[in-house]
């Protein structure tokens, strides 16, 4: 068998390095995009969990906590949700909010904005099934088709 040429070995090393760099590039693109996807997934889970907590609250009390909202694109206060689902007076806790995600008495979504919550006497603007609306504007997007919600 003839000995291999040094040029062939160099070509294989260059090919291997090129493949490693390409794979690293793909991984970096995926890693840089993932925090946004994680935030979306976390919002979906939190909205579903809050929905279950609201259903348990309604089962015990016969109504959902009332909260009127005038501008769905700019939810500013969901304190009624925090107070109703995690009372501090010894009543039943329906949802344990992490204190680091409570800002100005409101529960903050993974994008840094308050979750929206609207309910008026068991009715809502969007969700006729549940009678309340829960949503994240995904960082204050004004386009409702981009929001994460329960309707």
Task: Looking at this protein, list some descriptive labels.
3-stranded antiparallel sheet; elongated; single chain; mainly alpha; 151 residues; two-stranded antiparallel ribbon
Q: What is the topology?
A:
Layout: H1 6-61, H2 79-85, E1 102-103, E2 106-107, E3 116-118, E4 133-136, E5 148-149
Antiparallel strand pairs: 1-2, 3-4, 4-5
Q: How many β strands by DSSP? A: 5
Count of DSSP helices?
2
Rounded Rg? 25 Å
Estimate the helix proportion, in percent: 40-55%
Class by alpha and beta content? mainly alpha
Spatial order of the strands forming the largest sheet:
3-4-5
Compute the average pLDDT. Answer: 80
* N- to C-terminal distance: 72 Å
Envelope shape: elongated
Could you explain how this protein is built, in words?
With 151 residues, this protein is mostly helical. It has one domain (38-149). Helices cover 42% and strands 9% of the residues. The protein contains two helices and five strands; from the N terminus they run H-H-E-E-E-E-E. The protein has helices at residues 6-61, 79-85; strands at residues 102-103, 106-107, 116-118, 133-136, 148-149. The strands form two sheets. The chain has a three-stranded antiparallel beta sheet with strand order 3-4-5, with helices on one face. A two-stranded antiparallel sheet has the order 1-2. The protein starts with 5 loop residues before the first helix and ends with a strand. The mean pLDDT is 80.
